[in-house]
Specification:
The complex is a heterodimer of chains A (637) and B (69). By secondary structure, chain A is mainly alpha-helical. Chain A folds into two domains: 2-420, Sodium/glucose cotransporter; 544-635, Barwin-like endoglucanases, CATH 2.40.40. Chain A has 24 helices and six strands. Chain A has a six-stranded mixed beta barrel with strand order 1-5-2-4-3-6. The longest helix of chain A has 38 residues, at 347-384. Chain A is globular, with a radius of gyration of 26 Å. By secondary structure, chain B is mainly α. Chain B has helices at 3-31, 39-68. Chain B contains two helices and no strands. Chain B has one domain (3-68). The chains are: A mainly alpha (637), B mainly alpha (69). At the A-B interface, helix 6, helix 12 and helix 14 of A face helix 1 and helix 2 of B.
């Protein structure tokens, strides 16, 4: 009898919370906020799209931006892909350990900062497949392109599905739309926007959203604490082991520390830093390697811990509400974000949170669609149709963006057959990431890694991964660290360790029995030949002497050769620069983040005109400089 | 809460993760990719090391808060 009464109370609580969400969907205030938010964000991006002059701008944003701009842009991409919905769900079930995946990306940072980032920047590697061709050969490039496109299309599908699941509880009751209908609508909005925006628009849209998302998540935490009546009451409402920052070692097959360490801290971190084409395009948009390092460091050390709180706190608040009887214990974890937000915020506030989350997912999807277009145009189409003009490639990029959107919807449809977004994400991620991660790590850091070894990574490693999926109790069990095998998805996390061992094993064994390429053939493509990369980037000996950044007036000098700037002897001395060094000229206003800036080469002869920098006409054109504004000139290399 | 529940994940994370971190730090120094005669490289080497301690400290603080508050 008591059980029946509790069940009835529980059902009525869920119904009440769902009723609030559905009522919000019928409220004009809610829709005004949602539509207004999207118009604001898209308008913001469209304004900056006019800075696109070429495919380089469309894909890479023109290598000009400051670290803080790129950091916030990465926050929007990271928070968008590791969504509020997913981590609120994990936070509700497992507590503060939902932050684990945001706090374990530092282990491979030395390899990123001193290896991968300088290589892609100095060697002007524009995509992962291009790296594979220059490090190995074209067949390896083809294998990498196939893997990468599947990886990114899968992510686009996950993005569409998560967006649709966020909106589904609201739209199902008001418009009667099914999950697939919502997926098509969000895909249409994403496809139209990215087709006309390009990377500069995406970076600035993400900048805005990075701030808004952190604000939204932390505001939700404050609203939740207010609901409890303060931090003390909230803390007291949580179970003790719920407060630990790391999950239990191996006793829960659905969420265990050691499995997630190998799946996320190792395979996931390398995947995020090294093979995420969207992220690579962000770093290539930085004004310099050092600026990219700053963006990466601030992101991992400060923004990701903050983001972990922002995306998970709805789940923690939900768990506290359960202990206070305001939410039933059997609330579906996937509904927690929407229900908690509906309970603690006003209708307008609820509209803002829903808009912020769906727009963040839109950012992630936009970045990926843009990345698919970049890989297809640069790695497939340019090889088949070289020497066309820029406009032609831009047109193809827009068509590919539309095609990728449709394929993303197809992927989302496949993923709807999984129990949850998290399971679908884990299944495709742990299968597709290890071969790419292995090939790229060994390619950069092991000179002895051969072309045959790279092929073996994809072919033999891929085959062993499939075998592991078919016979998990035989092949993956020895790596299980004592994790019990669940019936439906055995070893879903620790499987990543087996997959990595399989790929690394195939790569190393085959490489030891085949002939490597010489250092001359792989110059600049490994950390052992980075000086070559720096020399190739500059076109001469790098100048590492420390100098100052100087504020100067500017004017255009038509007599200067293309890509050149000219300063006086005193400025050269102040910058510790010489003729032929690379310089960076940027509008003095810091808050522009490098939007009005250009790279140039210092002219051989200093002028005698005092504190003014003379710009070649093409440098002026590239920098979008404004009359009467002071610029900062500094030596780059 | 027992020792294994609280400290085994922490020790594994910074034991195995530390092997990856310090191994890769040694690799970039040995290869010359991180040239410690250059000012910028020296500074980033320090940032990397401090960052490792910062993240390890955050997790340590999280464990202690859960145990004693």
């Amino acid at each position: 009898m008591l059980r029946l009464l509790l069940q009835q109370a529980s059902d009525s609580d869920v119904a009440a919370a769902k009723q609030i969400a559905a009522e919000a969907g019928n409220s004009p205030v809610f829709w005004v906020v949602v539509v207004g938010y999207f118009v604001l964000v898209l308008g913001f991006g469209a304004y900056f799209a006019r800075f696109n002059k070429s495919t380089s701008d469309f894909f890479f944003g023109g290598r000009r931006f400051k670290w803080w701009l790129i950091t916030m842009s990465i926050v929007a991409t990271g928070v968008g892909s590791h969504s509020f919905l997913k981590y609120s769900s994990m936070g509700f079930e497992h507590g503060f350990s939902s932050t684990m995946t945001y706090m374990n990306d530092w282990f491979f940072m030395p390899l990123f900062m001193f290896g991968w980032l300088p290589i892609i920047y100095f060697m002007r590697v524009r995509s992962i497949p291009e790296y594979f061709e220059r490090r190995f050969n074209r067949p390896v490039r083809v294998l990498a392109t196939i893997s990468l496109l599947l990886y990114m299309l899968g992510y686009i599908g996950i993005g569409f599905l998560t967006m649709a699941k966020t909106l589904h509880p609201i739209l199902e009751g008001t418009l009667g739309w099914s999950l697939m209908e919502i997926i098509w609508v969000v895909a249409l909005v994403a496809g139209v926007y990215i087709t006309f925006g390009g990377q500069t628009a995406v970076i600035f849209t993400d900048l805005l959203q990075g701030f808004i998302l952190l604000f939204a998540g932390l505001a939700l935490l404050l609203l939740g604490l207010d609901w409890f009546g303060g931090l003390g009451a909230f803390w007291a409402a949580l179970p003790a082991d719920f407060k630990l920052p790391l999950a239990s070692f191996n006793d829960d097959p659905g969420f265990n520390f050691v499995g997630i360490f190998w799946q996320d801290a190792v395979a996931g971190s390398i995947g995020f830093l090294f093979i995420n084409q969207g992220l690579i395009m962000r770093f290539l948009a930085c004004k310099s390697v050092n600026e990219g390092r700053k963006a990466a460091a601030v992101n991992v050390l400060f923004m990701m811990p903050l983001s972990a709180i922002a995306v998970g706190c709805a789940g923690w608040i939900g768990r506290g509400m359960v202990s206070q009887g305001a939410l039933p214990a059997d609330t579906s974890p996937d509904d927690v974000f929407t229900l908690v937000t509906a309970l603690v915020a006003s209708k307008a506030g609820f509209g803002f949170f829903v808009a912020a989350v769906t727009a963040a997912l839109m950012s992630t999807v936009d970045t990926l669609i843009n990345a698919v277009a970049a890989v297809f145009v640069n790695d497939v189409y340019r090889l088949a149709a070289p020497r066309r003009d820029d406009k032609h490639y831009l047109k193809v990029a827009m068509m590919v963006s539309a095609g990728a959107t449709v394929l993303g919807v197809g992927a989302a449809w496949i993923f709807t057959s999984f129990d949850s977004v998290y399971r679908a994400h884990g299944a495709f991620h742990s299968t597709l990431t290890p071969p790419l991660v292995t090939a790229i790590l060994l390619g950069i850091f092991w000179r002895r890694f051969t072309t045959a070894g790279a092929v073996a990574t994809f072919v033999i490693g891929g085959g062993l991964i499939v075998a592991g999926r078919v016979w998990p109790l035989t092949l993956i069990a020895p790596f299980s660290h004592g994790i019990p095998a669940s019936e439906s998805h055995p070893y879903s996390y620790i499987g990543a360790l087996y997959n990595l061992v399989a790929c690394f094993g195939a790569a190393v064994v085959v490489s030891l029995f085949t002939r490597r390429r010489t250092d001359e053939q792989t110059d600049g493509m490994t950390i052992w030949t980075l000086e070559t990369a720096r020399r190739a980037f500059k076109g001469g000996e790098p100048n590492d002497a420390r100098g100052f950044a100087l504020p100067l007036r500017w004017r255009v000098e038509p007599g200067l050769p293309e890509g050149a700037v000219q300063v006086d002897a005193e400025a050269l001395q102040g910058m510790a620069a010489g003729a032929g060094d690379l310089a960076y000229v940027c509008d003095k206003r810091w808050w522009l983040g490098g939007l009005r800036s250009a790279h140039a080469r210092l002219h051989a002869e200093p002028h005698a005109l005092g504190e003014v920098v003379l710009l070649a006409p093409d440098v002026f054109e590239a920098g979008h400089f404004q009359e009467g504004r002071i610029v900062i000139v500094e030596k780059e290399l | 809460m027992d020792f294994n529940r609280v400290w085994l994940p922490y020790l594994y994370l910074y034991g195995v993760g530390g092997l990856f971190f310090f191994g890769s730090l040694a690799l970039v120094v040995r290869s010359g990719a991180c040239d410690r005669t250059r000012f910028a490289d020296r500074r980033w080497f320090r940032v990397l090391f401090t960052g490792f301690l910062w993240i390890a400290g955050l997790h340590l603080a999280g464990n202690l808060l859960a145990l004693f508050l």
